[in-house]
Structure formats: C-alpha cells, structure tokens
C-alpha cells in the first residue's frame, strides 16, 4: 500500500459526505485574514519600536486618545473632556483628528480657529465638527496625515499641547502620553482581529500605552482591567462613565406637533435612529432616558443621510404615533443641511463622568504634562 493511500481514502470519504461542513467557512476565512492583518500591524509597530521606521516629533507636547477596537469607546466625548481639563491647567491646546469621511480628510484643513467654525460637517467630518462646535478656545485641524495637520495647527495657533483624537495606531507621530480606552462591557470585542472581529491590533499592542481608561455606559463606572492584555498590569487605570443626556431639541417646520421647551424624553413616544459605531447602545440610552421607542433605525457609522431616508423616518413616526425623532449629537450635525424636519428632532449626547469627579486623571495629567511656565504661555484665545 502506498504510504499516502489511507490519507487519500479518508479525504475522499470526507469529500463524498453530503453532510460535511464547508472546507473553508466564512468565519475561518475572516479569522485567517485577521491573523494576516494583525501580523502586519505587529510588524509595523515593531519596526517603529526598533527605529527602523522613523517617528517625527512635534516641538510641543502630544497626547493621544485611542483604542484597540473599531469605534464605540467614547473617544470623542473624552477627547473634548481632556482638552478642557488640559486647557484649564493653563496650556494652549489644539485638537488634531483624521476627519474620517469628511471631504477635507485627504487634503487637510482647519475646522475651527477656536473662535468660530470654518468648515461644515460634510467637509470636516462629523466628529471633528462636533468637537470644534463644543470646544471654545481650542482650534481643531483635520487631515489623514496627522503630522502635517499638527504642523498646520502649530503654524497657525502655536498650541503647547496637541491632542490626537483616535491616535493610538498613528505611530509615525511621536507622543508624550498615550491614553488607551476600553469598553468596560466588551474590552476586546470578540477577541478577534479585523476583519474577523473588532480589534485593530492584537491585545499585546496595549503595552504601548501609558494609562488605561475603562469606559462604561449609563450609571456604571468601569470594572476590572481587561483580561488577556499583556504588559499593562502596572499602568495607571481610570474609570469613566458616559452618561446620556438630552442636549437640544430642534423644532420642526411650521405646522408640526410641538415639543415643549421644558420637555424631556420621559414617556415620549419617539423614533430613534443613529449611524454610530454601536447603534444598539444608543437605543439603550434613549430608553434609559425614559423614551418610549416606537421604532429603531440603524445606519453605518458616519453615515451621511439622504432625503428618502429622512422621509422613511418621518413616515415611521407617523405610522407609530411618535411625536418626535431622536438621534445622537454626531448624527445631528449630518442632518443640518436638511433644515427643520417635519417632526421635532431630539438630540442626545454623552457626558463624561469620572468615578472620582476627575481628580485622579487631572493629577495624572499634571504629573505627566506639568504646568506651562510664565515664559511659555501666550495669551489665551477668547
């Protein structure tokens, strides 16, 4: 008998079996692609660590806010919170973001000079636009090349601290402080690397961070350090909750049902819709605020809405007896081009609530950044 004949017979029997599982399942294919992608990301990080790929350092302090997973950990509200705290310490601050899916992403642009908005959301990208609108006295610059965007910020506004929104994987730009955010409920998603899961890198990449921030939603305040992480046991750990709140109600066009100025979502029948990283969490937030959710519509993250989709939402509200629509602050900036809708639009945002009121993170920032000296400080933006 030939040496390979038993193996051949086994394989042929398996091939003839009509109940056999597929040789390559989609899950196995995605997992394999994830291993390749994760290996490439690990090699890239190692090349930067060894100095074979060069990093460029800005003539100012750089703080990165990032994560290991694809979206959904609250980088935008925490970037804004940290920018306010660093500015309150006396530093002049600018925020640099990629401007994902904004038309200015490739060329780079100034979204805000700290006094006024200079680009619409479609140009800036929804998250940088929202950051620029909320942060007074903090310029916001976007660009896929974060080094070039940061240099524009330095030349135009002379910040002493640049905060990188979603900067953990942008290794080309050296940073002085890396804050790594984790969802307290699902720190590593399903544990698999993209495209088989939500991880951007293998968990061992967390060893590059300087501190871990556990982010929870609702009333929680974080939990234990994420399991499966290599090399972060000795890192400082902070806990923050993102709490939903009704921040605005955009009144409807003339003739639409009213929305009382002092009203909230409690008991109000509504249609909820969102295009964020985790729409399910947003729908939970609306219910947490007391909204009577008649229907939910989820879109992909950073989705720019079309007129027919708005009409579909209005139609769903009328069919279910809902008196308003409700969405996220990030989605709301993508709807401004439509003007007043046929129903009131309630806008829900997330506010950062640190477990200790922010005392520990402020002390950590003070320890790592210090305070600007009198010689280093220039006049604040009004």
In short:
By secondary structure, the protein is of the alpha/beta class. Helix content is 30%, strand content 21%. It folds into 2 domains: 61-242 and 354-369, Rossmann fold; 252-343, no CATH class.
The parts where pLDDT drops under 50 for at least 5 residues are 377-382
Query: Care to count the β-strands?
Result: 12
Query: Mean pLDDT, nearest integer?
Result: 86
The CATH class label of the largest domain is Alpha Beta
CATH structural architecture of the largest domain? 3-Layer(aba) Sandwich
The H-and-E topology, N to C, reads as: HHEHEEHHEHEEEEEHEHEHEH
Strand order of the largest sheet: 3-4-2-5-1-6-7-8-12-11-9-10
Tell me what the structure shows.
The model is unreliable at 377-382 (pLDDT under 50). The radius of gyration is 24 Å and the shape is globular. The chain is built from ten helices and twelve strands. Strand 9, helix 7 (279-288) and strand 10 (292-298) form a beta-alpha-beta unit. The chain has helices at residues 5-16, 26-50, 75-88, 121-124, 126-134, 146-157, 279-288, 307-320, 329-333, 359-369, and strands spanning 61-67, 93-97, 109-112, 140-142, 161-165, 177-183, 211-217, 237-250, 269-274, 292-298, 324-328, 345-354. Helix 3 (75-88) runs parallel beside helix 5. Helix content is 30%, strand content 21%. It folds into two domains: 61-242 and 354-369, Rossmann fold; 252-343, no CATH class. It is an alpha/beta fold and 382 residues long. A twelve-stranded mixed beta sheet has the order 3-4-2-5-1-6-7-8-12-11-9-10, sandwiched between helices.
């Amino acid at each position: 008998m030939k040496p390979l004949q038993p193996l051949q017979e086994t394989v042929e029997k398996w091939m003839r079996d009509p109940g056999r599982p597929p040789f390559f399942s989609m899950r196995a294919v995605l997992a394999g692609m994830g291993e390749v992608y994760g290996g490439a990301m690990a090699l890239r990080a190692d090349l930067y660590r060894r100095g074979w790929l060069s990093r460029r350092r800005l003539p100012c302090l750089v703080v990165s806010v990032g994560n290991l997973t694809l979206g959904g950990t609250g980088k935008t509200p925490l970037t804004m919170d940290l920018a306010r705290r660093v500015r309150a310490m006396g530093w002049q601050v600018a925020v640099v973001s990629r401007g994902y899916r904004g038309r200015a992403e490739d060329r780079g642009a100034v979204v805000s000079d700290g006094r006024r908005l200079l680009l619409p959301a479609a140009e800036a990208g929804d998250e940088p636009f929202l950051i620029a609108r909320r942060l007074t006295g903090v310029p916001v610059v976007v660009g896929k090349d974060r080094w070039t965007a940061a240099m524009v910020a330095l030349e135009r506004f002379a910040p002493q601290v640049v905060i990188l929104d979603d900067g953990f994987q942008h290794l080309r730009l050296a940073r002085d402080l890396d804050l790594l955010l984790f969802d307290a409920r699902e720190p590593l998603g399903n544990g698999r690397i993209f495209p088989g899961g939500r991880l951007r890198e293998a968990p061992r990449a967390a060893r590059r961070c300087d501190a871990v921030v556990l982010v929870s939603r609702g009333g929680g305040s974080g939990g234990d350090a994420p399991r499966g992480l290599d090399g972060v046991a000795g890192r400082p750990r902070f806990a923050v909750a993102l709490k939903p709140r009704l921040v605005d109600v955009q009144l409807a066009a003339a003739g639409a049902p009213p929305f009382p100025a002092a009203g909230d979502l409690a008991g109000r029948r509504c249609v909820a819709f969102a295009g964020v990283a985790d729409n399910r969490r947003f729908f939970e937030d609306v219910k947490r605020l007391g909204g009577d959710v008649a229907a939910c519509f989820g879109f992909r993250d950073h989705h720019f809405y079309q007129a027919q989709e708005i009409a579909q939402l209005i139609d769903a509200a009328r069919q279910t007896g809902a008196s308003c629509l409700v969405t996220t602050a990030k989605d709301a900036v993508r709807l401004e081009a439509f003007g007043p809708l046929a129903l009131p639009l309630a806008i829900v945002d997330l506010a950062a609530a640190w477990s200790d009121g922010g005392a520990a993170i402020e002390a950590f920032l003070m320890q790592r950044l210090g305070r600007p000296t009198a010689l280093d400080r220039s006049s604040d933006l009004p």
